[in-house]
């Protein structure tokens, strides 16, 4: 079976598993312990992982707050900022209609708590027009949350421009970069307008259940403050209490190291895979398909295709013994994609659409299986 649902999740690499196993077995210490070696070993393992992630995104180590994944990171940024600044009486938050449910649903929750939310329209590929953002910001705007790479279409927003608009207006900016990490370079120094950035390990061959929120240091060297979601032992500078998931964090660090070392080759391979599949699909299906995803300003290795006249669920079920793909986000798979609807597709067209997403470790020859469909 050919697995082409890497935007949903990826298998962990053998090197990642081997490193993790050490901390699931002999090195079981709690890094918050003191004096004895087991605790110190766990502490330095966390510190190495932090260093690897900081190298992958060119941030400082202090700006990395480990979480259980991007859902938590997004919740932490949005709810944490909304709560912390509620006394300032700024109650307007801007997001977009093509966000992952881990942002949209948080915004809906905040709306129920009295915040005003603007859901910006997106273009036919799911991108936000920076001019629309400029127009939407007002004196009550506290936070803008716009994703970097879309999980269903791969489209990339111009996060640098969007975040600079916010910086000029004194508005905090969060971006969900879950799909971007390890697939496109992220340079934290190059995007000073971004206040918060969410990432997750399991989209780049790391383990599930670990991620991070990267929080910008202000001019005094302090992290931009927010209210923690969890209170307790004070880990992660008190921003994220809870005993460290050492093996997961170690796995995240190793996946980040491997992604950094191979980034250019990985991107090249992802483009090759996607180009080959596009060529086969065009050749085989001609006018019976159309592409929902763009070919520019997009993450490599994600394509979204509409099989005109065919129901996507029926097709995926039929394909499932040989090819694993999806209708869109695994987190909202029960509903027709809100992302594709936001791009202007009719519901009937959404129900004909399938996402294929590759890993750099997908074998180019394996794509030949599409000739046999
Ligand atoms: N945001 C985006 C864009 C995603 O693709 C995902 C994973 N489907 C998430 C957030 C949630 O990430 P996690 O599984 O780490 O909670």
Question: Would you mind describing this structure in some detail?
Answer:
The chain is an alpha/beta fold and about 375 residues long. The protein folds into two domains: about 1-10 and about 265-370, Alpha-Beta Complex (Aspartate Aminotransferase, domain 1); about 15-255, Type I PLP-dependent aspartate aminotransferase-like (Major domain) (Aspartate Aminotransferase, domain 2, 3-Layer(aba) Sandwich), CATH 3.40.640.10. The protein is built from ten helices and twelve strands. The strands form three sheets. It has a seven-stranded mixed β-sheet, with helices on both faces. Helix 4 (about 100-110) links the parallel strand 3 (about 90-95) and strand 4. Helix 3 (about 70-85) runs parallel beside helix 4. The two termini are about 15 Å apart. The model has no long low-confidence stretch (mean pLDDT about 95). 4'-deoxy-4'-aminopyridoxal-5'-phosphate binds near residues 70, 71, 102, 151 and 211.
């Amino acid at each position: 079976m050919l697995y082409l649902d890497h935007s949903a999740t990826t298998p962990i690499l053998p090197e990642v598993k081997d490193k993790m196993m050490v901390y699931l077995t002999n090195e079981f210490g709690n890094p918050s312990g003191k004096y004895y070696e087991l605790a110190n070993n766990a502490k330095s393992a966390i510190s190495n992982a932090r260093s690897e992630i900081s190298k992958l995104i060119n941030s400082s180590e202090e700006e990395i707050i480990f979480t259980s994944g991007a859902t938590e990171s997004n919740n932490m940024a949005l709810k944490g900022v909304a709560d912390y600044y509620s006394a300032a009486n700024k109650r307007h938050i801007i997001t977009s209609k093509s966000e992952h449910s881990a942002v949209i649903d948080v915004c809906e929750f905040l709306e129920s708590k009295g915040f005003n939310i603007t859901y910006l329209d997106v273009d036919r590929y799911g991108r936000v027009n920076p001019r629309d953002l400029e127009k939407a910001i007002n004196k009550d705007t506290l936070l803008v949350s716009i994703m970097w790479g879309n999980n269903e279409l791969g489209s990339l927003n111009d996060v640098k421009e969007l975040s600079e608009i916010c910086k000029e207006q004194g508005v905090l900016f969060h971006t969900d970069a879950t799909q971007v990490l390890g697939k496109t370079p992220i340079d934290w120094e190059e995007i000073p307008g971004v206040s918060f950035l969410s990432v997750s390990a399991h989209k780049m061959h790391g383990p599930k259940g670990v991620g991070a929120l990267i929080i910008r240091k202000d001019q005094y060297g302090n992290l931009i403050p927010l209210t923690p979601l969890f209170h307790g032992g004070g880990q992660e500078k008190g921003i994220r209490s809870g005993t460290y998931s050492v093996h997961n964090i170690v796995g995240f660090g190793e996946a980040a190291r491997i992604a950094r070392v191979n980034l250019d080759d990985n991107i090249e391979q992802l483009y090759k895979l996607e180009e080959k599949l596009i060529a086969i699909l065009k050749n085989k299906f001609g006018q019976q398909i159309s592409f929902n995803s763009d070919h520019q300003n997009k993450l490599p290795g994600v394509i979204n295709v509409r099989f005109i006249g065919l129901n996507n669920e029926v097709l995926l079920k039929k394909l499932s013994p040989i090819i694993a793909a999806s209708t869109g986000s695994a987190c909202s798979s029960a509903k027709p994609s809100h992302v594709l609807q936001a791009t202007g597709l009719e519901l009937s067209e959404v129900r004909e659409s399938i996402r294929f997403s590759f890993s750099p470790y997908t074998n180019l020859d394996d794509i030949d299986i599409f000739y046999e469909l």
